[in-house]
Amino acid sequence: ASEINPGCSGQVIVDLCSVVKELVENSLDAGATSVDVRFKNQGLESIEVQDNGDGISPQNYETLALKHHTSKLATYSDLTTLQTFGFRGEALSSLCALSHFSVTTCMAADAPKGTKLDFEVSGKLKGTSVVAAQKGTTVSVENLFNNLPVRRRELERNIKREWSRVIGVLGQYACIQTGVKFSVSQQAGKGKKTSLFSTKGNKTTRENIVNVFGAKTLTALVPMDLKLKLEPTSGPSQRWSTQEDGGQKDIRIVGHISRPASGEGRTTPDRQMFFVNARPCGLPQVAKAFNEVYKAYNGSQSPFIFANIELDTHLYDVNVSPDKRTIMLHDQTRMLENLKEALVFLFDSQDY
Ligand code: ADP
Ligand code: MG
């Protein structure tokens, strides 16, 4: 079974990127089909995430931002088949402690009014007020880290790098989530709000990619659908040999990769995106395998890669880091060997 420990707590909010990630994941967990992310001064002033999801039930108002409050786990056993992004109940409580934080929410589609919730630093509900709102939830984070001068200074100093990470990660969610309209905008000072990208609720990841990265990607990208077969290891770590079907397990890697010399290769890091069961995550070893095989075929360029690894939830651990970004694939060495073979096959094929 996967080793997920709900009690293992850590800091989930370590930088701007983790704020954005936690808020967007909450919106997706709430079933949103529209997620609007608005920044003021690249998030230094404020980050607002508005969704059209289920909203928050009044019975959860009091406890919403208390540490370890979560509405997402019915029972402990759910942890092995985790479907939601969140399960720890830490993001909102951390944000209360680290920013000026408020939530506006509305559950009914026909109600023109919602409730604004204000919280104390401790996460205790300070007060509620009735405001105009549409169905869904808007979370507002202002002056992140203002009460932690060292961290605030560090954020300001690194804002350029942080900002590109934030946009990169938003692009990943926007591309992988089909059927969800994402829009991302930024306002500098008192200037005009500028849209950075928006997706249209597309049915395919390909259309999402075109919305985020531009029409040029349309001709540059080739669909990829790699199927890998794994057998249980015979080594000491037979972590999934207890699976009912004991024998072979499939891994599918679905996505898009750029054609050689398509001009879409010269990558900035945001042009190589990896997901495990639609969860954006850094998989440096997998990226390395892709780049190695690609280079052997296509010279020095690195490809644009959009790769979603679909596999059984028992074949990886998601909780090795508090922000859930590092995912440990079981039997990774063997999987990488298989992946390289499959890529050679793809690059040799006529479609490519
Ligand atoms: P977690 O996501 O691990 O449950 P969070 O601290 O991120 O913990 O959120 C706490 C709870 O607040 C969630 O379990 C959910 O009930 C509620 N919540 C947060 N954001 C939203 C949202 N955008 N829409 C609806 N409910 C939300
Ligand atoms: Mg959450």
UniProtKB/TrEMBL annotation:
DNA mismatch repair protein S5 domain mapped to chain residues: 209-348
Q: Which residues form a coiled coil?
A: none
Specify the superkingdom: Eukaryota
Q: Which family does it belong to?
A: Belongs to the DNA mismatch repair MutL/HexB family.
Q: What is this protein called?
A: DNA mismatch repair protein PMS1
Q: Which organism is it from?
A: Glarea lozoyensis (strain ATCC 20868 / MF5171)
